[in-house]
Amino acid sequence: MGSANNLVNAQGKEPLFSFSVISDVQYADIPDRRSFIGVPRFYRHSILVLQRAVQQWNDHKRHKFALNFGDIVDGLCPKDQSLGTVRKVVEEFEKFNGPTYHMIGNHCLYNLPRDTLLPILKIPGPDGRAYYDFSPTSEFRFVILDGYDISAIGWPQDHPNTLEALKFLQQKNPNIEKNSPAGLVGLERRFLKFNGGVGKEQLEWLDGILQEATKMKQKVVICCHLPLDPGATSQEALLWNYDEVMNLIHTYNCVKVCLAGHDHEGGHTIDSHGIHHRVLEAALECPPGTDAFGYVDVYNDRLSLIGTDRMESTDMCFSPQADL
Ligand SMILES: Nc1ccn([C@@H]2O[C@H](COP(=O)(O)O)[C@@H](O)[C@H]2O)c(=O)n1
Ligand SMILES: O=P(O)(O)OC[C@H](O)CO
Asked: Residues in domain Calcineurin-like phosphoesterase (predicted)?
């Protein structure tokens, strides 16, 4: 099965640590079909991709943790099977010999409300919030953003965040079908119901985390289901207020890499401040027998993503200083 797309380790150095990555498993026990724009999706095969990923990560015996970039179950999963199907995919992650840090995606929220979903994914945020951070070593901090904080999906219908999202969509997208980008131009095409935004409280929290990381001379990796830079994704997949989030991030120098999912074909760019944005290829779109997962070797001055099969390998080099 899928071979690793090896990068040459130029310095021949041992990584500080490694972690595993996979995105958009979108498993459902339903026949294969195509996305709205005609891309084939392999719903039953995607859990096999996850199983092979976990097997490979465990064989390596050196990954400190795994990151799941969201959308573990597809929205087409019959609703009476949602809970069982989410649990079934989580059980596969639990076979990994280490903790998995999960993000929520739109498809997770089509299946289960936040108050049911978050405990199953062991997401620690209070009041249904799905943003949190952790430090695997003293030099690095990982920040998990909740891209569906302001969203028309996942919160109760009368929740202030649902109401804020509906009002926002009403202003930004004139289509009756709010998932349709018809008539929207350029970056406006992100104003779709299947996307979401980072709210004021979460932005304040992020500001505090980046201040603290700067004081502690930590390098930061930002992770979110939704991409944060138009250079790494289609316009239709961007976080609604990616610009606001990036303007905040750019006031600091500690963030080195932003990782995301959602835009299934994947992408990579380096922004005007030297931050790498890498969107990961989806497990769902792997034709039977192919794979899309990987692991990242972390060094003082770069993150090296070693992808398997359809996941491209990417060397992400940066200035080693966290506070300059
Ligand atoms: N160009 C597009 C893309 C999507 N839609 C709507 O979004 C829904 C979800 O799309 P998938 O990528 O998950 O297939 C789809 O059912 C459409 O309602 C659209 O209108 N135009
Ligand atoms: O996973 P979906 O169905 O939400 O698709 C998201 C699209 O890839 C965004 O362009």
From this structure: 21-265
